[in-house]
Write a sequence for this structure.
């Protein structure tokens, strides 16, 4: 019963580098999300997906890309990393049926520093 | 604009006390409200989920209430323990994907 698994847990990038944050869930949840959490702030939604093959932008999508080729996986791609992308990134999933959301499950986060 | 506010930002109380954390939201047309716990360097753990039609939910020493008309929710923690020390986050769902978060209350329980 792994839940939501995120890798890596920590990463340091140089400005201009690219990387992919991995996220996988084994609960057959249809919705998946990527959030970022800056110090002292609430979480901000980057991208979300309502099912395989369907993704959409959240509040702060600039500088990021996502894909959802399977129900289980929802990777987040950072292109041309910038210091403003230094943050903690959380992946989450939820199950939605008949407009009822049965709550969110979060991964343990990826702490990213761009220098 | 939909906003979620949590007051206080930090709270320190002696072990054994009962305490209340507050969450307020500007738009009362919510789907549900969820309380999470976040430990330093770790992910978020869901504590309680209250649907818009419900008034409260209980789990062990935790009780969460919801008053949509006043735009408020409270998380009541009974008989606090040092292990309760964490940041508590409130999140309000307004649509299938939109979850608006408060900035959290950092709780310290002193032994």
């Amino acid at each position: 019963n792994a839940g939501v698994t995120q890798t890596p847990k920590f990463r340091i990038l140089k400005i201009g580098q690219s990387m992919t944050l991995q996220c996988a869930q084994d609960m057959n949840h249809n919705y998946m999300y990527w959030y970022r959490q800056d110090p002292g702030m609430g979480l901000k939604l980057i991208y979300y997906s309502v099912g395989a093959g369907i993704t959409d932008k959240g509040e702060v999508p600039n500088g990021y890309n996502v894909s959802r080729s399977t129900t289980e996986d929802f990777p987040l791609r950072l292109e041309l990393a910038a210091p403003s992308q230094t943050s903690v990134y959380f992946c989450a999933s939820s199950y939605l049926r008949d407009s009822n959301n049965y709550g969110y499950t979060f991964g343990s986060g990826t702490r990213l520093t761009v220098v | 604009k939909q906003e979620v506010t949590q007051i206080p930002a930090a709270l320190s109380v002696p072990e054994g006390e009962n305490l209340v954390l507050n969450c307020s939201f500007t738009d009362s047309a919510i789907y549900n409200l969820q309380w999470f716990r976040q430990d330093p360097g770790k992910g978020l753990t869901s504590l309680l989920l209250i649907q818009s039609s419900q008034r409260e939910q209980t789990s062990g020493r935790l009780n969460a209430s919801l008053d949509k008309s006043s735009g408020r929710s409270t998380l009541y923690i009974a008989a606090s323990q040092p292990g309760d020390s964490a940041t508590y986050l409130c999140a309000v769902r307004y649509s299938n994907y939109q979850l608006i978060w408060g900035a959290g209350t950092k709780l310290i329980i002193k032994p």
